[in-house]
Q: What sequence folds into this?
């Protein structure tokens, strides 16, 4: 009797288990990628790598209520934050695993929304895992004020827009005013620009700086982004790795700078890189967007150049951008209306965007708002000695051309900089040796490529 | 009567097998099955590029051929053995010396317990934390460079991480610091197992300390020494954490400090189970051969 009861319980457990499994896997068929398909889910899962987007949503999205560090509510929908730091690619690994399981997951466990960076945006954009913005019900007319490059980043190979951003990150050349005064004879932006207007002049200025005891830039990697943003072809063309002329120019220029002792080969964010934030570091310039100037150059540390307002900003040799976060709707979301509304509010609502500029000093993705701010003195940067660089940022954002990105950018850029560091340090005897190291590294990351 | 007796023996056997079950199950699930699935995987082209899965397609020995023909295997085996050798030679010498001192009854060292604890302590710190510490200490503008410059030994910061031999020595040194305490404890245990009367007899015969060490301690310690050598070799071939953290996974300069396992780890970026599997099989074979050589070399002499 006892045995029979036990087997009955076991049987029913097995049946219940398999039914539950069925329920989970058959659910995604019910709602397609169309915006208004039945009732919305009760859980909004957001994948991101830091607190930035969470604080934007908390501060600016109407009706968002904080529950605890990783939970919140919007109306009767629970918002669940899945935050994985991007160190060592952990964020992407986690996201990839969960996206691949998306079809079989229960409605409340599916990813509804995730964030990406430009370096690897195409890896997600050019797949069916991201939802088209048009399918979410957001029209092109609503996005007219956004900078074109922020849309280019998220456009897949067949021209479909797959994600939006609330910020723009055009960069400028940030120079040490004291060094400019001493070596170039003027610290005025208009005069300094003449000394850095193209790479040839920039290199000549580096010699002058060296003679006066200054490094031109903290490391060769500072300038890499500026060269690599201005390439004329993609890293990978027809499955073959192609090295662009402008990137080769970076190698030539940088090798010369390093050999003459005018810069170092340190990594970005290392101590050797950031020591130039202080007068004793003796660095003439950095390349960076608004967030670098405002948040990363030790402005709140007594004695730093930023603290004394000792930096100035000019356009520099070429336009570029650095960073930025894009919002993607995940295919299979059970909250398409909410996802669409969050995108709409944060990236197109002018009132909210103006608030973001005021509260968070972001350079927001709205031409009209930024061009208006560029003319106002209240937006002058204290770290730049009272200069208002917004007009420069606006001009820069309009000029950025991202038609030459590819889904392999992150891996290729990382491996290229790493291989060339060996060349600059003299460990690779020739450029060809360093290239071999680069090809080897890329082939390990993307075995299908050839060179 | 007879029957009952027999059943008693059988039931004892049964307990033996029951006690073996946990080990066998854990071994099967976590060792033997992964071993065979690794070999199985090595015959397939199976990786992920971005979100695209490629394979698994059966390719026979293609992965093995790729590894053998591009010469990587030889380079990284060499790197691994160099860094292992640089660390293990001083490690064994120092451990032997310390072990001999600690166990020598005529020396009567004080605070033995304290010293034993101190030399073992580095092993308790995580290798990654230790490597991070050294990475910071030996950075271009780190404290070691500042000290050397203030003392006037060098005028420019020495870029430790950009020179082949400084990186290799640092890796070896870290491994040495971390493991010499462990080796000392093992060798001491071996030395304490040697019959004390042999030492006394040697002293009576007028042997010097050096003679006692080389003629009595070392030969009788051979089984433990072989054990230490083989475990250290296997551990050395699997060297990963220290160079990985110290060079940020790059094995710089020019991959001269990249070990076999670091190379294996590179294939995990693309989830390349085929190449990873093939490389693991090679590693398995290399470890087997080297362990055999060490074992033969150490035990073969005894027969002479």
A:
């Amino acid at each position: 009797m006892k045995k029979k009861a036990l087997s009955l319980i076991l049987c029913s457990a097995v049946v219940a288990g398999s039914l539950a499994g069925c329920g989970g896997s058959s659910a995604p068929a019910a709602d397609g990628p169309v915006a208004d398909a039945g009732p919305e889910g009760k859980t909004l899962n957001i994948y991101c790598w830091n607190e930035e987007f969470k604080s934007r949503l908390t501060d600016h999205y109407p009706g968002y209520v904080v529950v605890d560090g990783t939970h919140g509510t919007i109306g009767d929908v629970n918002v669940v934050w899945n935050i994985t730091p991007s160190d060592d690619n952990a964020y992407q690994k986690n996201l990839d695993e969960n996206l691949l399981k998306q079809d079989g997951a229960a409605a409340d466990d599916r990813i509804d929304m995730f964030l990406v960076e430009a370096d690897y945006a195409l890896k997600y954009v050019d797949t069916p895992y991201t939802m088209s913005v048009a399918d979410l019900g957001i029209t092109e007319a609503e996005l007219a004020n956004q900078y074109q490059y922020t849309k280019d980043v998220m456009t897949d190979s067949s021209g479909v827009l797959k994600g939006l951003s609330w910020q723009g990150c055009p960069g400028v050349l940030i120079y040490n005013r004291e060094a400019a005064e001493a070596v170039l004879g003027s610290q005025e932006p208009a005069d300094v620009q003449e000394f850095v207007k193209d790479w040839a002049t920039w290199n000549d200025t580096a010699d002058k700086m060296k003679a006066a005891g200054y490094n031109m830039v903290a490391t060769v990697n500072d300038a890499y982004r500026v060269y690599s943003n201005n390439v004329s072809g993609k890293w990978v063309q027809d499955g073959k790795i192609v090295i662009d002329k402008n990137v080769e120019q970076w190698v030539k220029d940088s090798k010369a700078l390093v050999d003459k002792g005018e810069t170092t080969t340190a990594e970005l964010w290392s101590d050797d890189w950031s020591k130039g934030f202080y007068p004793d570091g003796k660095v003439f310039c950095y390349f960076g967007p608004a967030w670098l100037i405002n948040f990363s150059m030790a402005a709140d540390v007594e004695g730093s150049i930023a603290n004394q307002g000792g930096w100035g900003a000019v356009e520099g040799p070429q336009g570029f951008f650095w960073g930025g976060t894009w919002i993607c709707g995940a295919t299979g979301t059970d909250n398409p209306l909410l996802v669409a509304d969050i995108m709409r509010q944060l990236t197109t609502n002018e009132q909210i965007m103006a608030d973001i500029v005021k509260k968070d000093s972001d350079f927001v993705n709205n031409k009209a708002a930024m061009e208006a701010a560029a003319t106002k003195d209240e937006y002058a940067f204290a770290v730049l000695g009272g200069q208002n660089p917004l007009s420069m940022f606006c001009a820069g954002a309009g000029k950025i051309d991202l038609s030459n990105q590819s889904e392999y950018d992150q891996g290729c850029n990382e491996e290229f900089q790493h291989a060339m560091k060996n060349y600059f340090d003299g460990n690779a005897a020739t450029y060809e040796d360093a290239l071999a190291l680069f090809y080897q590294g890329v082939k390990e990351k993307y075995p299908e490529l050839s060179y | 009567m007879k029957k009952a007796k027999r059943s008693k023996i059988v039931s004892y056997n049964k307990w033996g097998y029951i006690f073996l079950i946990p080990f066998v199950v854990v071994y099967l699930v976590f060792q033997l099955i992964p071993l065979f699935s690794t070999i199985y995987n090595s015959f397939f082209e199976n990786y992920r590029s971005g979100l695209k899965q490629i394979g698994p397609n059966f390719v026979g020995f293609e992965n093995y051929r790729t590894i053998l023909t591009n010469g990587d295997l030889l380079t990284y085996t060499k790197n691994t053995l160099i860094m292992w050798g640089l660390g293990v030679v001083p490690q064994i010498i120092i451990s032997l010396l310390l072990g001999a001192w600690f166990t020598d009854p005529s020396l009567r060292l004080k605070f033995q317990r304290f010293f034993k604890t101190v030399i073992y302590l580095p092993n308790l710190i995580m290798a990654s934390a230790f490597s991070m510490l050294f990475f910071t200490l030996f950075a271009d503008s780190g404290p070691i460079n500042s000290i050397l410059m203030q003392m006037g030994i060098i005028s420019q910061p020495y870029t430790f991480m950009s020179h082949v031999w400084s990186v290799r020595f640092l890796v070896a040194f870290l491994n040495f610091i971390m493991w010499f305490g462990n080796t000392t404890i093992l060798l001491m245990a071996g030395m304490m197992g040697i019959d004390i009367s042999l030492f006394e007899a040697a002293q009576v015969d007028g042997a010097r300390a050096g003679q006692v060490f080389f003629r009595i301690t070392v030969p009788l310690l051979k089984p433990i020494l072989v054990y230490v050598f083989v475990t250290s070799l296997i551990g050395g071939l699997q060297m990963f954490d220290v160079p990985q953290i110290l060079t940020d996974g790059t094995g710089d300069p020019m991959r001269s400090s990249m070990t076999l396992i670091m190379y294996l780890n590179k294939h995990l970026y693309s989830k390349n189970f085929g190449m990873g599997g093939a490389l693991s099989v090679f590693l398995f074979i290399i470890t087997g051969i080297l362990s055999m050589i060490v074992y033969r070399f150490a035990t073969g002499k005894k027969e002479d």
Observations:
- The longest strand of chain A covers residues 77-83.
